[in-house]
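Bug #77: duplicate submission created two jobs. Keeping one. Sequence:
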Amino acid sequence: MLFSFSNVQAQSIDKLEQFANGALKDALMVPSLTSLDVDWVTGNVNAAKAHYACGMTIPYRLQVSGLTPGNYQVVIGYDTHKSDKHAIDYLTSFDRDTNHDRFPHSPEDVLGQILLGTDLEEVSVVFDDYPLPVPFGLEAGDERTIDGFLYARDVEGYGDFRIYTNGDVPVNATLTFDPGDPLSDVNYATSDYLVVDFTIVDGQSIVVFAWGGNIACEDLWGEGSSAADIQGSPYHMFNSSCINLGGCGSKEVQLSATAVVAYAAPTCELIATDVECFGESTGSLTLIGTENGGSVAPFWIEVYDDTDPFNPVLKYEGATEIDGTFFINGLPAAPYRTLIWNSEQDVAVELAGECLDTIFQAEECTVTITPPAGYDLGCNGTWPTSLTADVLVDCGTDGSTNTTVESDGGVLQAPQGCVQSRLYTFTYTDDCGNTDTKTTTLTMKVDLTAPEITANSDDDLGCNPTDAEIETALGSASATDNCDDPGDITITSRDETGGEPCAMWAVRTFYAEDLCGNIDSAKVRVDWKVDLT
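Kept job's structure:
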């Protein structure tokens, strides 16, 4: 495409921003990433604001406003080297999510809303994607840069530069690669450039460019040759120049090397000891450092309960070697995870696999006592010294246990009369403090007193009484008892007679027996004379 340029300079580049996807510490510890502190920012971004890794894409955007119909040009520069170390390999799509799986969150959580905070945020927009040009003119060996770009474009599907506008039709644009700074025998080129030529038509006044930069990896360029090995802020993206626009050459953003997680995290093993009793905090963790990892010391070692991600249950600072053993006691049941912090970079890696473990707890148990039914001991018995009850300890899926429990010696209940009661109490408590209490009542009649008999008095019937008169004189008896009703007393009698005609007698002996077998007796004697001569 052939462009002709006017001399209008009222239009301006407003801002060049990069996406700060939040501190790694927050990304690891905030339960919901909706509360993660992410933002589009100008200037320098360090570990307090962002977390990236080699092979990931840094999203960028640039806003131009006040546009009128005409032709414009923006030249975007980016650092590729510092000495023999690589910084940004190539440009790619802003929404490329490669290598986000290194961190415990979804890419969409931290890629950012591209128009948030721009003048196009709340207006109707259209956009188009423009193929990024293949880098060329690179020094010997940098075919790896081209291979990486082609892989991102052709295999992953991320090789476009996007332009948003407020018009009804997309912007007409052409992208050109410029190999940038000249090479010499001593220094590598420090920057490459993307030239964006675009035309504005009626109805278009604002554009937002969106693209990304791939962070160079040591596994591609060799040990000590990636951006992670560059001190300071090697990831520069800047507006080099422009045509027909104001604000040219003054827009630049940098990403600090501290925001790129590059160190090899130590390895460890976390071993949990479970909670034996439901609801208690008797679990423990043993953290064993198995390999130091060759990382930059000192380290901060932190272990977190997933239900409380802000307060570590273990925090050990200043460990220059982590191969050792740490013990954490008094923990409740929960999943636990380990973070190893690199205090120099102020970033951390959540160690996966063996350095995660869960403290489980036993099921909640219920104790149920089934006491024997109460019964009566009868009369004047002996109270048992104790009773035996069945016990069921039910622990759900952990199973159940059947056992027995002895009662206490019983407590005599008041008030006391002929019928007494004794309350026996059963209490069972398992090893975890789960308990149940039941009672059984026994009764017993205590009666050692015989009934009292009421009968006729002895009598002398004189001469020649009739049989009826003798029977009446012997009579019958009644009885009362301290415990039983009169109707419950059994009365029997036995008669004896004797003598001679001038001195006859009869004795009737009455016996009264209560329900407890206590017996009393009484005798009635009748005398008479038989004399018919």
